[in-house]
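For the sake of clarity, the format in which proteins appear in this thesis is described at this point. Each number in the token line that follows is a code from a learned vocabulary of backbone shapes. One such record is shown here in full, so that the layout can be seen directly:
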Amino acid sequence: MDNTSTLTTNPNNELEKLKKTELAIFKFIDDICRKENITYMAAGGTLIGCIRHKGFIPWDDDIDLMLPRPDFEKFLEVMETTYGNERYKCLSDRTVKDYFYPFAKVVDTKTYLVEQGYPLIQELGVYVDLFPLDGLPGTQLMRNLYVTVFHFYITELFNSLAECPLDSTSPLFAFLKRITYRHARKKGWQYWLRKIENKRKHHAYQECKMAGCVVSGYGKRELLDKKVFSSQIDWHFESLIVRIPKEYDIYLRSLYGDYMQLPPIEKRTNKHEFTVEYLE
């Protein structure tokens, strides 16, 4: 029997199978965090799903969580020393040599996942993303500069992984993209990942009044008062009870505006392209 699934060719059945696997990973993470007193919260579209649907956004295909940097580091540590097992493993650039993301993933090792357009990660399976919440500079000017530099590093990281530069309708932008693409490829993805890691160390989470997931791609919209993330409450997500920020409305409105409004039908699509092999 063929256990290989392509989400784009059989979206309904395969999406439900994927969600069931992700939900099991989510429960595994939640159990660890509650046992070890590790703070985590649903993030991004997963948090919209909690509030608007009490579960997955119907067309969504992943789960995103955020952890304050000290809790993120603690989670990586306990996964390495105590909780990693034959079924679930935490992938990061510290544990897997071909891992190029500036955040972590907890994967189901009984699956194998290949993301289209990216280099292979040998141990990648169906996953839940873990994003660190990092401290930010004290002034708005410095925060804006900080996130601009981060955006450049992340852009160059993914340029370094791309097989060719992205197309552009503007000849000028196409020329500039080719230049940055060549520069990024010459340096290599390890170089840009180190730049990102070193940059985030400049502002200790405990000492800052502002925080955000600067590696998640939302830019300035996610630079918020740390108080937004300081308290958590329980909330329904499918069959689970999970943790969300008590000030979820402030967070979601900053990222999405009116997050309770459904997007147009043509935009209700899953955002990732990958194939999944279920090994059992």
About this structure: The chain has a mean pLDDT of 90. Helices lie at 11-36, 44-53, 69-83, 140-161, 171-187, 189-200, 248-256. The longest helix spans residues 11-36. The longest strand covers residues 127-135.
